[in-house]
């Protein structure tokens, strides 16, 4: 079972259908209220609320742990009225399979959610897994 450090990854809004390979080329995305995103994340089995969205969604945190697998999630917003979800930072270390399960779970509820990394690459859960496995095989 391959494990991955998630600190370089986040979830981001994008189109429902295949996004561009780079977030630099992303010109349309679904608009999700932060409450809806939080509900989808917290519905993942084992996910727990660490900090509520008080006084704002910027304070919101959730965490998941299963044995040695663990990650924490935060919330960023687009500065519009009413606020819209702008992405979710991820920090932690877990199996590729566990994180893919989590991402698929969120995408079942919010199909315009994609993975994004610091190289501005946009991924599905499946292409994320393929890239991580490929990077491990090269390193």
Could you walk me through the main structural features you see in this protein, from its secondary elements to its overall organization?
Strands 1, 2, 3, 4, 5, 6, 7, 8 and 9 form a nine-stranded antiparallel β-sheet that branches. This protein is an alpha+beta fold. The chain is built from three helices and nine strands; from the N terminus they run ββαβββββαββα. It is globular, with a radius of gyration of 14 Å.
Which structural class do the helices and strands define? alpha+beta
**Whole-angstrom Rg:** 14 Å
- The sequence of SSEs as H and E is EEHEEEEEHEEH
Distance from N terminus to C terminus (CA atoms, Å) equals 16 Å
The whole-number mean of residue pLDDT values reads: 93
> Uncertain runs with pLDDT below 50, 5 residues or more?
none
Number of strands: 9
**Could you say which overall geometry the principal axes of the C-alpha atoms support?**
globular
Q: What's the number of helices?
A: 3
How big a fraction of the residues is strand? 25-35%
Sheet having the most strands = 9 strands, antiparallel
Fraction of residues in helices? 25-40%
């Amino acid at each position: 079972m391959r494990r991955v450090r998630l600190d370089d990854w986040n979830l981001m809004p994008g189109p429902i259908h295949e996004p561009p390979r780079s977030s630099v080329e992303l010109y349309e995305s679904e608009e999700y209220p932060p409450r809806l995103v939080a509900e989808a994340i917290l519905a993942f089995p084992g996910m727990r609320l660490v900090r509520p969205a008080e006084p704002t969604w910027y304070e919101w945190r959730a965490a998941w742990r299963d044995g040695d697998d663990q990650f924490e999630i935060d919330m960023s917003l687009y500065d519009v009225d009413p606020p819209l979800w702008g992405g979710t930072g991820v920090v932690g270390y877990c199996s590729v399979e566990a994180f893919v399960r989590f991402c698929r779970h969120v995408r079942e509820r919010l199909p315009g959610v994609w993975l994004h990394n610091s190289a501005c690459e946009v991924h599905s859960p499946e292409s994320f897994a393929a890239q991580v496995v490929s990077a491990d095989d090269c390193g």
